[in-house]
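Title: Prediction job returns without error message
Component: structure pipeline
Severity: low
Priority: P3
Assignee: unassigned

Description:
Job completed but the reporter wants confirmation the result is attached to the right record. Sequence as submitted:
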Amino acid sequence: MSLLVLVRHGQSVANLANVFTGWLDVELTPLGEDEARQAGQRLHDFHFDLAYCSTLVRSRRTLELILAHLHQDSVPVKAADALRERMYGALQGLNKAETILKYGQDQVNLWRRSYEDAPPEGETLHHTQERVFEYFNAEIAPQLRLGRNVLVVSHGNTLRALRMQLEGLSVAQVEALEIPTGGIRVYDLDEQLNIRKASDL
């Protein structure tokens, strides 16, 4: 048996400014750093054998703060481009409220939540899921099958895509799924990576 723990990074300066972030590399806010430490507090009973994050600083810093709180700084960490946030293309850096005024609420909702609709020059959630799960199958799943406990700190859309695959969510379910900054999802897995139990912390 193994444990897989998914954590969304803490609030970033782009979250606070209400802009589309995607692959923009932005820091955590002071609140975001607190959310990362609080995630560490909620994980105080967990021991991890290895950890993964994206190459973006908001993901890396959140993981760093969690492991520091747990006194598990020696846990091996792998940062991967495949775990980056969904690419928002031409919307990156734009204010969400101003984008709604320009394109309308319905269009922006499609770009933000739809599984198959891509922002201009960006990725669909479907494309995000494909790259994330390819990495998961190649790098993370083998570690879980060895009975190791794995921590993954990533981004809202990345984790939505991963949860869709792991939990067998429908398109409608994943489009409605919201993951808060600092949010934690824990999976207790058997040897075949079937979910024995899933819960939020």
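Comment from assignee: result matches the submitted record. The chain has one domain: 2-200.
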